[in-house]
Specification:
This protein is of the alpha+beta class and 444 residues long. The chain is built from twelve helices and 26 strands. The strands form seven sheets. Strands 6, 7, 8, 13, 14, 16, 17 and 22 form an eight-stranded mixed β-sheet that branches. It is globular, with a radius of gyration of 22 Å. The N and C termini lie far apart (51 Å).
Length: 444
């Protein structure tokens, strides 16, 4: 693993001819340039796009206009694809080359930018005229449990005398989720049915979940994969990570409580997982790298395959994360969403590189477009807890909203929005956009 590389694509003094990219509060300045997949309202064919300010650069249109002629033909073909999987397959190096070319195309002070600006009407799309898609065809999805604060809080609810199981501080804990129910931001989330039991010994009844929850997470998309039987050394792990997004792993806590023994989550979590539409590349995130989590004295050191000096020095990401809630009553009254939590991805006990390396350590093959979830991001402070299970402490301490409503768990009509961004002196703020979903009533 090499330390993050900074170049002129991170220069805060460079401006874009796309005016919206120069606004100080935009998530998508010219130093970001995240990848996504969208569809024009007038056609079915999805296209690769790159966010810039309040516009989207159409990869197919730019390719047809000859703006990507300096790129390798395989890269141009990938940018003309229906998904990001071909670009992910090529790897981070080729994605980095695209980022460099697009940066020059969108600059206000280059010949390439002058040419692209003359074609603005053909190569830029307005968010109002497009629909964003899940940015890759996701073959497999694995969700981790990497926040020691979340794991300790949840463990203490069910095992007050032994919140953390012995294996937690030795390896990243995860489970395999359901890729088919990963949905794009803005897609409604139907309240699920399942078995619940008031008594731990049963008997259960089948009913709509009464304890629906969100989970604030970071998602990481895989770039180059590995063959069955091969491993991915920690020093090479980040070359297999394409970029990051926001992720909401919706959870039915009453279903989960009854079903999780002995094999873990099943129907409580596989009904919906929402991802934000834009993948922020690791190259864009280079200025915002942080040391990995500082383990307290007495905690074990990771086993050698999970330890690397560069990962210790730069394995973290300085991402600020928030959860916002808007109830149906708040919408009817014209009230804005209200912030429930504010935390940092820097509080995670395990790094994304460690998660990826551990995932492949038994020879499990990861493939381009696969998705890794970090697990709920929670910090040590109460307002940094990343789900209602923690915020309302298993329903015993409901959250009171400014509207006078209370929430122990989500109600029908509630809209949950996740937001994330990075900020550091000497660099432009960059963001992830929104990851949004509204709960709709159960059916049947």
């Amino acid at each position: 693993m090499t330390s993050p590389h900074l170049d002129d694509t991170h220069d805060p003094a460079i401006t874009s001819w796309v005016d919206g990219a120069n606004a100080p509060d935009t998530d998508f300045p010219i130093t970001n340039l995240p990848f996504g997949v969208f569809r024009h309202d007038f056609e079915e064919r999805p296209r690769v796009g790159i966010a810039i300010g309040d516009r989207v650069l159409d990869g197919l249109a730019a390719m047809r206009a000859g703006l990507f002629n300096t790129l390798d033909p395989a890269v141009r073909d990938a940018l003309a694809s229906w998904t990001l999987n071909p670009l992910m397959t090529l790897g981070r190096g080729d994605a980095r080359a695209v980022r460099g070319v697009v940066h020059r195309l969108l600059r206000a002070d280059t010949a390439e930018g002058e040419r692209a600006q003359a074609l603005a009407g053909d190569i830029l799309a307005s968010p109002d005229a497009i629909g964003m898609r899940v940015p890759a065809e996701i073959g497999d999805y694995t969700d981790f449990y990497a926040s020691v604060f979340h794991a300790t809080n949840v463990g203490s609810m069910f095992r007050p005398d032994n919140p953390l199981l012995p294996n937690y501080k030795w390896m990243p804990i995860g489970y395999h989720g359901r890729a088919s129910s990963i949905i794009a931001s803005g897609t409604p989330v139907r309240r699920p049915h399942g078995q619940t039991a008031a008594n731990p010994a049963g008997p259960p009844t089948r009913t709509a979940s009464a304890r629906l929850d969100y989970e604030l997470e970071i998602g990481a998309f895989i770039a180059r994969g590995n063959r069955v039987g091969d491993t991915i050394p920690l020093a090479e792990a980040e070359e297999h990570l394409f970029g990051l997004c926001l992720l909401n792993d919706w959870s039915a806590r009453d279903l989960q409580q009854w079903e999780y023994q002995p094999l873990g989550p099943f129907l409580a979590k596989n009904f919906a997982t929402t991802v934000s539409p834009w993948i922020v590349t690791l190259d864009a995130l280079a200025p915002f790298r942080t040391p990995s989590f500082a383990r307290p004295d007495g905690d074990p050191s990771p086993l050698p395959y999970l330890d690397d000096p560069t990962d210790r020095a730069h394995g973290g990401f300085g991402i600020t994360l928030e959860v916002w809630l808007r109830t149906a009553a708040m919408r009817d009254a014209g009230r804005p969403a209200e912030r429930l939590s504010h935390g940092s991805f820097g509080s995670m006990y395990w790094t994304l590189a460690q998660m990826l390396t551990h995932h492949a350590s038994n020879g499990c093959n990861l493939r381009p477009g696969d998705l890794i979830g970090s697990g709920t991001v929670s910090g040590p402070e109460r307002d940094a807890r990343g789900c209602l299970l923690e915020l309302a402490w298993r329903g015993q301490e409901p959250v009171t909203l400014s509207s006078g409503e209370t929430r122990a768990f989500l109600h029908d009509g509630d809209e949950v929005t996740l937001r994330g961004w990075c900020a550091r002196d000497g660099f432009r703020r960059i963001g992830f956009g929104e990851c949004r979903g509204q709960v709709t009533p159960a059916v049947g």
